[in-house]
Specification:
With 368 residues, the chain is an alpha+beta fold. The protein has 2 domains: 233 residues, Trna Endonuclease, Chain: A, domain 1, CATH 3.40.1350.10; 128 residues. 37% of the residues lie in helices and 25% in strands. It has 13 helices and 14 strands. The protein has a 6-stranded mixed beta sheet, with helices on both faces.
């Protein structure tokens, strides 16, 4: 159905009233055309429809606007957001009546993404965000702190995750419009199905009502498939403490209580490092500030044995020797032959209480 003939209905008592479609060319916030759509999204990030982008999550995926008109590839990206999993979200807004929309906007946003992963860094993005919000009379650092508060880790850790996602080409591209033409939909669906780390989506924003000050707005995400979402590594989420505790409520004992015990110690010692995966896990940092041990959803443990993850090679060797003495690493393991690390031979639920206590004492000795 053409947006021009679109209509929605509201049932009031026994009376069905129609609400007509309102084209963006009639303006919003005192502006017209693409500016109206951009302004609407900038002021209302919830319209990105996080519950449709990640339908498996109990809570809608949240977004924070970083800036408008972000310089990239000799042009300017309309809108740059970041989601609560530290994934940058690039948005280009085009209206159906703009002939450019169906011909070049897909190529344009892909070009922007390819330039972003090679040209941008987290520091530059942060500077642009601070500058943009200052111009709007807002303190960006305060807004970011409020945005990350539910994740229970500080903003510096969040920027580290943004940098990591950018380096690994985990991005989300959204083409937003009042009506996406069939050719644009096909291109979006194809790209989203084929890309491994980059999510490509369409977003239709329809407005209904007679006055710009009293509108019903309906967002619809296009191009998303469950298969693509599950396959894409960029779909991993950040497992902050409160999210971990919620996920563990369904776990049996002693797994739940032992994971909780380790988490409490990590937070107490300020060495907690959130997991970034599909399943609920987390890690701890060593004296070098790097993750040296990870705890999986099944109670499995993975230890990084590269010397660079410890203050010194001697400390790495001592840590590995203690793990061997607890029977958690093979006694004849040659550390010089280990490329990265090793999964420990037993999981948390398999340890006796005495072994569990010895493991915790050992890990805490080598924490940051």
């Amino acid at each position: 159905m053409s947006a021009k003939r679109d209509v929605i209905f509201r049932l009031e008592g026994e009376t069905l009233n129609s609400i007509p479609y309102r084209p963006f060319r009639q303006g919003l916030f005192g502006t017209e055309l693409e500016s109206a759509l951009q302004g609407l999204l900038a002021q209302n990030p919830d319209l990105l429809a996080g519950h449709q982008i990640d339908p498996s999550s109990e809570e809608p995926l949240r977004f924070l606007l970083l800036c408008r008109e972000m310089p990239v590839a000799g042009g300017a990206l309309d809108l740059l957001f970041v989601d609560e999993n530290a994934v940058l979200t690039l948005v280009e807004a085009k209206l159906a009546q703009n002939p450019e929309s169906s011909r070049t906007v897909i190529g344009q946003i892909v070009e922007y993404a390819s330039a972003a992963v090679s040209d941008w860094d987290a520091g530059e993005i942060r500077e642009r965000a601070v500058q943009f919000h200052d111009q709007q009379g807002r303190n960006f650092e305060d807004e970011l702190e409020a945005f990350t508060a539910p994740t229970d880790f500080d903003t510096e850790a969040f920027w580290d995750l943004i940098a990591d996602n950018l380096a690994k080409r985990r991005l989300r591209l959204i083409v937003a419009g009042d009506e996406l033409r069939a050719s644009a939909r096909r291109a979006i669906e194809f790209l989203n199905a084929e890309m491994q780390t980059v999510e490509v989506l369409g977003l239709e924003i329809r407005c209904y009502g007679d006055h710009s000050s009293d509108l019903t707005i309906v967002p619809m995400v296009l191009g998303q498939t469950q298969a693509a979402a599950e396959r894409r590594s960029g779909g991993a989420i950040i497992w902050h403490p409160s999210r971990l505790r919620t996920a563990w409520e369904e776990f049996g004992e002693p797994l739940r209580s032992r994971l909780t015990r380790v988490l409490d110690l990590a937070l107490e010692r300020n060495v907690f490092m959130p997991g970034h995966s599909q399943k609920p896990g987390f890690g701890m940092s060593s004296g070098s500030g790097k993750r040296f041990i990870s705890f999986g959803a099944d109670g499995g443990l993975y230890c990084t044995l590269e010397a660079g993850y410890y203050p010194s090679r001697t400390e790495r060797d001592e840590f590995a020797a203690q793990l061997k003495s607890l029977g958690l690493l093979d006694a004849d393991l040659d550390l010089d032959e280990v490329v990265s690390g090793r999964s420990l031979k037993r999981k948390l639920p398999e340890l006796s209480e005495r072994e569990m206590q010895s493991l915790l004492e050992l890990v805490l000795r080598f924490c940051g």
